[in-house]
Write a structure and sequence with these properties.
Layout: H1 3-22, E1 24-26, E2 35-39, H2 41-53, E3 58-63, E4 67-69, E5 73-76, E6 83-88, E7 91-93, E8 105-110, E9 115-118, E10 122-124, H3 128-133, E11 147-152, E12 155-160, E13 163-165, E14 172-175, E15 178-188, E16 199-202, E17 205-215, E18 221-223, E19 228-237, E20 243-248, E21 257-268, E22 272-278, E23 287-298, E24 302-307, E25 326-330, E26 337-338, H4 348-355, E27 364-365
Parallel strand pairs: 1-3, 2-4, 3-6, 4-7, 5-8, 6-9, 7-10, 8-11, 9-12, 10-13, 11-14, 12-15, 13-15, 14-16, 15-17, 16-18, 17-19, 18-20, 19-21, 20-22, 21-23, 22-24, 23-25, 23-26, 24-27
The chain binds 2-acetamido-2-deoxy-beta-D-glucopyranose (6 copies).
């Protein structure tokens, strides 16, 4: 490369960098301070709104390195920008007091297309105080606690290279969304923290979840009604309650779960491994095309739970409605299953009825079969 050419390339690069910079909406330019004490929620919403209104094809919201305090925020679209990068580089902490949250989310993205969240930062829900006041197991009308990161009506979105810790409730919640990728995430809370599911989803489709390390006090991943075409691979779970489908069929007319592939996941010191649970009166077809394979269980207490009689506290209509709630259900964990859990197999007839038979179970626990 001769000097002139070199200079031209450099100029071009500076020009490109300049263009890129013009579309970066840094919360610090909106008054945010990285002092860990000043609430940056107004600054963040303003930066988001400007980014969302930008007519550039790509715009970036930046929370740079440093420690910030952030109250609940709603980051909503639709946006003019067809692609928004949300660069979370800093450590962002939620206020510990759950009373400061009026809705079920701390950071909510809604009605957005083409969002990319990344940057290596951490969302710290500071859930310790909320966990001690969580009485949801005793009180069915308990106040909803906030999810660290909620996506609602979101499409074509990637969440990668960030961490979520100590959420007051679920860490990541996905509702009415489609075409999502969640990868390279680190999700953690103490094994004793209540309802801190890693990823929960419902009424959503075409989702890839891969390379995620999840250690929580509840399900690593919970898959609710209306989830379709989900691929989960290379998830490392534990402590936690495993990867769970359901509970399904509680209310009539519930959307079915279809096309769930869970592969190459490892469960270490978990309560469960792979679990699916439906209420007894669940109608036919509540779940189909479910595949769990190449799962490694390291000391999972109940590596596989197939429960068609899910009825906590016996408060439900226990009459079983049909036997084929699940079709195409396979759990070939044999070979890679190293569970130490209790073995409590149902008889062949029941097993066939439940899963259309010929499935090489490792350890199966039939709960209230
Ligand atoms: C941001 O946009 C939302 C909805 O578009 C609006 O309700 C809110 O007032 C805006 N907030 C700020 C600080 O600009
Ligand atoms: C649950 O906690 C809330 C708020 O702390 C309280 O008002 C309610 O009485 C509690 N309910 C039970 C059943 O403990
Ligand atoms: C999920 O991954 C598969 C295979 O890598 C890819 O073909 C598909 O487009 C991905 N889907 C989404 C929604 O990113
Ligand atoms: C999941 O993987 C299967 C192949 O195993 C593929 O056909 C399907 O498109 C994938 N789903 C998504 C959402 O990428
Ligand atoms: C699962 O792991 C096996 C062995 O390491 C590999 O051959 C296979 O491609 C992996 N599958 C997925 C979906 O990652
Ligand atoms: C049983 O399933 C059928 C549909 O297959 C539905 O019409 C009926 O309402 C269900 N019964 C109960 C008790 O849920």
């Amino acid at each position: 490369m001769d000097f002139k050419w070199n200079q031209w390339v450099l100029n071009a690069l500076f020009l490109l960098a300049g263009v890129a910079e013009a579309t970066v909406f840094d919360v610090k330019n909106y008054g945010a301070q990285a002092d860990g004490m000043t609430d940056i929620s107004k600054a963040l919403v303003s930066a988001w709104n400007d980014s969302c209104a930008s007519v550039e094809p790509t715009s970036t919201v930046l929370i740079s390195r440093g420690t910030y305090l952030l109250g609940p925020v709603i980051l909503s679209g639709p946006c003019k920008s067809s692609s928004i990068e949300f660069q979370l580089q800093g450590l962002v902490r939620a206020p510990p007091d759950p009373a400061l949250f009026k809705t079920d989310a701390w950071v909510l993205f809604e009605n957005v297309k083409g969002l990319k969240v990344s940057g290596g930062g951490i969302l710290d829900g500071q859930g310790q105080r909320a966990w001690t006041s969580n009485n949801c197991s005793a009180n069915p009308n308990c106040k909803e606690l906030p999810i660290n990161l909620k996506l609602a009506y979101v499409q074509n979105t990637i969440i990668r290279d960030i961490a979520s810790k100590n959420s007051k409730y679920f860490h990541i919640g996905i509702f009415q969304s489609s075409d999502l990728t969640l990868e390279n995430l680190n999700i953690y809370a103490p094994g004793s923290s209540p309802n801190t599911d890693g990823i929960h989803m419902s009424s959503s489709e075409r989702i890839n979840v891969t390379n995620i390390v999840i250690a929580t006090g509840d399900d690593c991943i919970s898959i609710g009604p209306g989830t379709r075409n989900l691929n989960v691979t290379k998830v490392v779970c534990g402590p936690g309650h495993g990867i769970s489908i359901g509970s399904l069929g509680k209310s009539p007319g519930e959307a079915e779960v279809h096309g769930i592939f869970v592969r190459n996941c490892t469960f270490t010191n978990t309560l469960n491994g792979a679990r699916i649970k439906t209420w007894p009166s669940s109608p036919v077809g509540a779940a189909s095309n479910i595949v769990f394979e190449d799962l490694i269980m390291n000391n999972a207490y109940f590596p596989v739970i197939l429960d068609q009689m899910y009825c906590p506290h016996q408060k439900c209509d226990q009459e079983r409605n049909g036997s084929k709630c699940w079709s195409g259900f396979a759990v070939p964990v044999m070979g890679s299953c190293r569970g130490e859990g209790e073995e409590e197999e149902g008889d062949e007839g029941e097993r066939d009825e439940a899963d259309h038979g010929e499935i090489p179970f490792c350890y199966v626990y039939y709960q209230s079969w």
